Amino acid sequence: MKWFEPDLNPAYEPAAAAAAAAASSASRDKPQLTHGDHALHLDSAVTTTNWADTIRFADLPFSAQRVALFLRAVVKKPDLVVLDEAFSGMDAALRDRCLLFLTWGTTKFYGEANRRGRRPKTSTGRARVLDTPKEVLDLEGMRVDGLSSEQALIVVSHVPEEVPGLVRDWMCLPEAATGEKVRFGRLKGPLEGMEGEWERIWFGEGGGRVRRKGRGKDECEGRGGGRRSE
Hints:
By secondary structure, this protein is α+β, with helices and mostly antiparallel strands.
């Protein structure tokens, strides 16, 4: 809840959070962590979840409702996590943060966005993922781990970007009345780092994002478990 407060709390104001942290003498030496497009001053005096006691689920924006449902599905560490179109209705930045949380929990976060909203990139063009400072993880209730090796994951999606990078097994269901067969297989490693192979699976050998305007023709289900390799 603390980690996703900017997305779940309609009254959250980054400027107010910064002022509250600055006003607390105990927080002056506490770390400031950029999470998504917000700067969170993660001091135990200001990172409470009291705000959640007065918010009704029905009153949340649709994207915030999706985040709440996603968190409810994963935080109790069930043996099997099923995410069926779980990220639909989220913008790309929020979706990516949820995917990162699914794998790494609060132990990693995206680098700070610049004034134009662009995150720093690695040499491969990906948004840079950083390790959360230990002093932040040591705050009460702040450390949450991602999926463990003892958990299984099933993801159903019509959009390739919504499939987590730890998926290895996949199955694609064709559109109705096309006569095409169900396709399935297993990647040599986690999906992350094998984007070219995933493109061929999703769009077909001759397909591509330009021709298909960024959407796959099939519904794909991905299966995975545990933490992806670094």
